[in-house]
């Protein structure tokens, strides 16, 4: 593992090269998306870390446009799946049909066989469809009538959901939420940004950005992210952030009655990988504690289950993460 000054210097040099390419991706996205810089960086971090992202926000704030624009910049195969209550697993995974010309069954692959999947309004899908999506997200494969098929690499699911609407929706089970590396909150633009949106989208429709990275380039970036150096102290800090959601009293936090279940080791892995991705976005070949802190809310907010007492007190998982970050000593 890297650790010497020479090795870290070499990692820094490569990280700066990758950061320049990622700046081009950002610039391409900004030709369509106005503002939302933090959202763009968090989505890119999920892609670099090889995870999936859940984008949550009210309708009309460009969640779908953000993801489709990213797909244009990355030049990967792309499919948008509009989730509805009447959707069937076969509608996304595919099915087998009888071909009368060959007198044999053949497999028709569904739209899940793309590199970037936009799962639009994912919480509108019934449980069977969510179960099929869960296998694709975790195993990078799907099963069609007993036969297993690998999905193309790289493979990302970028899902959206509306937090305000509950009618006709199926809340995602905790097991599926945990498969999303990040839960990204997307908010309204500010006034100046909204005026700029009016200027851009009420004249000529902006053209999609030119591709910046291809699938091989994305795979190379993902491989490099895993080689980014993380000091043992930074690793311990990431583990402590997660452990504090399970044993808050150990860290001087009076949150025990508020937390029904803390984050799992999958959160620790996501936290460190996202920290490495954040470092690469900044042009560094090593992780600092601020990289981990920057993405801790997005990594942890959907992995902390609250008690009824917490809900009665209007305490959110976001507030718990904030308290944990405030108490833990930064190495």
The CATH fourth-level homologous superfamily of the largest domain: P-loop containing nucleotide triphosphate hydrolases
Strand order of the largest sheet: 2-5-8-1-9
CATH architecture of the largest domain: 3-Layer(aba) Sandwich
Q: What number of domains?
A: 2
User: What is the residue-mean pLDDT, rounded to a whole number?
Assistant: 89
Total of helices: 13
What would you note in describing this structure?
The chain has 331 residues and is of the alpha/beta class. The protein has two domains: 227 residues, Rossmann fold, CATH 3.40.50; 102 residues, Helicase, Ruva Protein, domain 3. It has 13 helices and eleven strands. It has a five-stranded parallel sheet with strand order 2-5-8-1-9. Strands 3-4 form a two-stranded antiparallel ribbon. Strands 6-7 form a two-stranded antiparallel sheet. It is globular, with a radius of gyration of 21 Å. The two termini are 21 Å apart. The mean pLDDT is 89.
Relevant terms:
2 domains; Helicase, Ruva Protein, domain 3; 13 helices; 331 residues; Rossmann fold; 5-stranded parallel beta sheet; alpha/beta
């Amino acid at each position: 593992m890297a650790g010497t000054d020479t090795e870290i210097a070499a990692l820094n040099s490569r990280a700066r090269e990758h950061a320049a390419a990622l700046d081009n991706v950002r610039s391409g996205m900004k030709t369509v998306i106005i503002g939302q810089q933090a959202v763009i960086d968090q989505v890119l971090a999920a892609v670099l870390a090889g995870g999936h992202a859940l984008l949550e926000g009210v309708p009309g704030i460009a969640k779908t446009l953000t993801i489709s624009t990213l797909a244009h910049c990355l030049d990967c195969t792309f499919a948008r799946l509009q989730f509805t209550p009447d959707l069937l697993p076969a509608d996304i995974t595919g099915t087998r049909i009888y071909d009368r010309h060959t007198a044999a069954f053949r497999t028709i692959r569904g739209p899940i066989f793309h590199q970037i999947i936009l799962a639009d309004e994912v919480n509108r899908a019934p449980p069977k469809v969510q179960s099929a999506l869960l296998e694709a997200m975790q195993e990078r494969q799907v099963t069609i009538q007993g036969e297993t098929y690998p999905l193309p690499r790289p493979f990302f699911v970028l899902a959206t959901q509306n937090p305000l609407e509950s009618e006709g929706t199926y809340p995602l089970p905790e097991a599926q939420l945990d498969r999303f590396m990040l839960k990204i909150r997307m908010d309204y633009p500010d006034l100046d940004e909204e005026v700029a949106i009016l200027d851009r989208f009420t004249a000529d429709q902006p053209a999609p950005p030119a591709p910046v990275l291809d699938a091989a380039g994305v795979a190379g970036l993902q491989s490099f992210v895993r080689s980014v150096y993380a000091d043992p102290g930074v690793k311990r800090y990431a583990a402590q952030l997660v452990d504090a959601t399970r044993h808050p009293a150990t860290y001087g936090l009076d949150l025990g009655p508020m937390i029904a279940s803390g984050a799992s080791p999958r959160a620790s892995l996501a936290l460190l990988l996202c920290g490495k991705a954040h470092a690469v976005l900044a042009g560094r070949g090593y992780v600092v504690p601020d990289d981990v802190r920057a993405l801790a809310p997005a990594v942890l907010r959907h992995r902390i289950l609250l008690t009824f007492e917490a809900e009665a007190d209007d305490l959110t998982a976001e507030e718990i993460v904030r308290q944990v970050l405030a108490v833990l000593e930064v190495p």
